[in-house]
Design a protein that fits this description.
- Helix content is about 35%, strand content about 30%.
- The strands form 2 sheets. The protein has a 7-stranded mixed sheet.
- With about 230 residues, it is α+β, with helices and mostly antiparallel strands.
- It has one domain.
- It is globular, with a radius of gyration of 18 Å.
- The N and C termini lie far apart (about 40 Å).
- The chain is built from 8 helices and 11 strands.
Length: about 230
């Protein structure tokens, strides 16, 4: 079993792209909306829509040989959302499977920050035993560690299997980006600590975008503390 639902999703889709020999520009995106009480909404997306024409061409050739790829991805998402729906404090879990624009992911509501961490780790027991909580929220501050749902991608076997495979994955990821967006349900953002972030929408949105390879290879970190004025 994969260490986290998001990792499983991203790994499946990246392996699919590698199998298609498709070089593309895509974006892995997290969006968090949080209230003064610590409840909120979380969205995780793998957005390949900007490379739709290239993927269409590659997939048309690949699907002629194997038409089960998307069915397997949909099945993995369905099982993942079922697991998330069973976590205490998680509600309104939805899978995002846009086969036309190649946008995949999930969204859900969380009642408190502990539920969000539990969902990102798939179980409260994992989060407690491994000490892998990503987020903390107290005194109008949201903090996150350097860990992301895609941090473990560097350990994919395909990256180490052969020099050719490693080079192919490197090329695939060259145009990819990791994005994190944080918004308060009400109020504004007073400050943030990550030097690569910026405020948008009249200080109502924190926006962070960096090359995916920089995250995977440890050249930059999404660790951050955001202070809100609710």
């Amino acid at each position: 079993m994969c260490a986290s639902l998001q990792f499983c999703m991203v790994r499946s889709l990246l392996l699919l792209l590698v199998a298609c020999m498709c070089l593309s520009c895509f974006e892995i995106r997290e969006e968090i909306t949080i209230s003064k009480q610590g409840s909120g909404n979380y969205v995780f997306l793998l957005d390949m829509s900007r490379s739709k024409s290239l993927i269409d061409m590659a997939m048309s050739m690949q699907m002629a040989k194997d038409r089960t790829s998307f069915a397997q991805i949909d099945s993995a998402f369905a099982k993942g959302t079922e697991r998330l729906a069973q976590i205490q404090g998680i509600q309104n879990v939805q899978a995002i499977n846009d086969h036309e624009q190649y946008v995949f992911g999930m969204r859900f509501d969380f009642q408190h920050i502990e539920a969000l961490n539990a969902a990102l780790n798939q179980s409260q027991e994992q989060a407690e035993l491994n000490g892998t909580n990503i987020f903390t929220f107290k005194k109008k501050e949201l903090s996150r560690t350097e860990r992301t749902p895609i941090s473990a991608l560097a350990d994919l076997a395909v990256l180490r299997s052969t020099p050719e495979g490693a080079a192919q994955m490197q090329t695939l990821l060259q145009g990819a980006a990791y994005v994190c967006v944080v918004r308060p349900q009400t109020g504004k953002i007073r400050s943030f600590s990550n030097p690569n972030g910026e405020l948008q929408d009249n200080n109502k949105t924190f926006y962070y975008r960096v090359p995916l390879l920089d995250i995977m290879e440890g050249r930059t970190s999404p660790a951050n503390t955001i202070k809100f004025k609710f």
